[in-house]
Amino acid sequence: MTAHRLLLTTFMKTVFVTGGAGFIGSAFVRLLLEENSDFEIINFDALTYAGNLENLKEFDETRHKFVKGDITNREEVFNALPDGCEAIFNFAAESHVDRSINSASEFVLTNVLGTQVLLDAARAKNVRRFCQISTDEVMGSLPEDENTFFTEESPLKPNSPYAASKASAEHFVRAAHETFGVDTIITRCGNNYGGRQFPEKLIPLVIANAMNNEPIPLYGDGKYTRDWIFVEDHCRAIRLAFEKGKSGESYNIGARNERQNLDVVKSILDALGKPHSLIKFVTDRLGHDRRYAIDAGRVEMELGWKPRVSWEEGLQKTIQWYRENQDWVNRVRSGAYRDYYKNLYGMEVGVK
Ligand code: NAD
Ligand code: DAU
What share of the chain is helix, strand, coil (3-state, %, to 5)? Predict the structure, then answer.
């Protein structure tokens, strides 16, 4: 070991981030590397279709060690997790609702079994705090015509297989806290957007298709509502929940930014100077949740969090990122992506 490395490992706090090559996980890793100089990160990721090390290419290995591994594999997890870590941040997941409707088994494996393997490892290796990155979707759907919001007391009523797997994972996290006294935090956030998001999700899909003058598939009447948050704001809230959150608690994270899908799509087309005629209304998603809206009162009052990035600024930054990284877009819209797309939408994409 070099003297430099020895010095680092003596004073550094180690955190174990799973899914750190994905969209939100990589934004979280970037935030810690840029703003928490006393942290070193073990980034444990299976590099599924959604994982991409290009997302972190600007960082060397000084404080960021990447380990390719699967959270459902006990041996891989136990080998990679050192004793006495500051935290596990569990971002690793199958994260796309449409894929879960097509086939739920992978979601049960990674999102449920994988979380339990990590909880077992946290106990065995004396991890100080376990942070489970969950989602507002565990609370189901809200009526569109009422001024109601998800709070931390809302019952769990997941509607999609994805949401059911995330709700199930939350129950195992709670059980580890209640039964074994594991120090846990659960965060539940709404829809994230920002650069480096895989173009299966609405905003990057719309940007990528529009940049290529391809039709934009919009489900149902397009009036479904999501509560959008810029990814860095989400990551800052997770860090605060880790630092100041109360053990065993859940924290809902949202930027009070409800938007209907049709309005989101039109804003993107306008920003790119593309015609609204690219919008193509397609068959609705099965079990499609009508509205998500988060009451972020607890993270605001208890943790002193508030979003820094407005919707207008965040969307502009996001579009700019995709414009400047068309190679990234072309690479991820690979053969496997084109097959996925054709199978889901019955349309071709990315064919020149
Ligand atoms: P993503 O699909 O972009 O990334 C998931 C990452 O997990 C990928 O890097 C993938 O390789 C890795 N992964 C998948 N299976 C794995 C396994 N078995 N072992 C190890 N690594 C594995 O997802 P995202 O959008 O960045 O979401 C991250 C987390 O945040 C998820 O837990 C998701 O449920 C949650 N979340 C997402 C949103 C959102 O809007 N995207 C909102 C709230 C919560
Ligand atoms: O709310 C948090 C959740 O947000 C996260 O837990 C999930 O991981 C994340 O995928 C996201 O789920 P959604 O299903 O809300 O996101 P998605 O981007 O798939 O869809 C957003 C909305 O846009 C939803 O109402 C469905 C609609 N949509 C989506 C796609 C991909 C379309 O109309 N057309 C599309 O092609």
Answer: 45, 20, 35
pLDDT in tens, the chain (352 residues): 565 555 555 679 999 999 999 999 999 999 999 999 999 999 999 999 999 999 999 999 999 999 999 999 999 999 999 999 999 999 999 999 999 999 999 999 999 999 999 999 999 999 999 999 999 999 999 999 879 999 999 999 999 999 999 999 999 999 999 999 999 999 999 999 999 999 999 999 999 999 999 999 999 999 999 999 999 999 999 999 999 999 999 999 999 999 999 999 999 999 999 999 999 999 999 999 999 999 999 999 999 999 999 999 999 999 999 999 999 999 999 999 999 999 999 999 987 6
Q: Is residue 7 part of a domain?
A: yes
Catalytic-role residue among 70, 94, 137, 227:
137
Ligand 1 atom closest to Cα of 48?
Answer: 11
Chain position carrying tokens 């935030």:
31
Instruction: Say if 270 falls within a structural domain.
Output: no
Q: Is 343 inside a domain boundary? A: no
Q: Give me the catalytic one of 45, 162, 292, 341.
A: 162
- Distances from the Cα of 185 to the Cα of 130, 248, 250, 311, angstroms: 6, 6, 6, 27
Q: How many domains does the chain have?
A: 1
302 has catalytic annotation: no
- 248: region left, alpha or beta (phi > 0 left; psi from -120 to 50 alpha): left
In this structure, the residues whose C-beta lies within 6 A of any atom of ligand 2 are: 95-97, 135-137, 190-191, 201-202, 205, 217-219, 224, 226, 261, 285, 292
| Catalytic (active site) residue 137 | yes
Is 136 one of the annotated active-site residues of the chain? Answer: yes
CA angle 327, 332, 338 (to 5 degrees): 120
Quote the ligand 2 centre to 218 CA distance (angstroms): 11
Cα 28 to ligand 1 centroid, rounded to whole Å? 12
Distance 227 CA to ligand 2 centre (A): 11
- Indicate which CATH number applies to the domain containing 52: 3.40.50.720
**H, E, C per residue of 106-132:** HHHHHHHHHHHHHHHHHHHCCCCEEEE
Q: What domain range includes position 8?
A: 3-194+228-255+290-309
Kindly state whether residue 240 falls inside one of the protein's structural domains. Answer: yes
The reply to whether ligand 1 has any atom less than 6 angstroms from the CB of 22 is yes
Å from CA of 233 to ligand 2 middle: 19
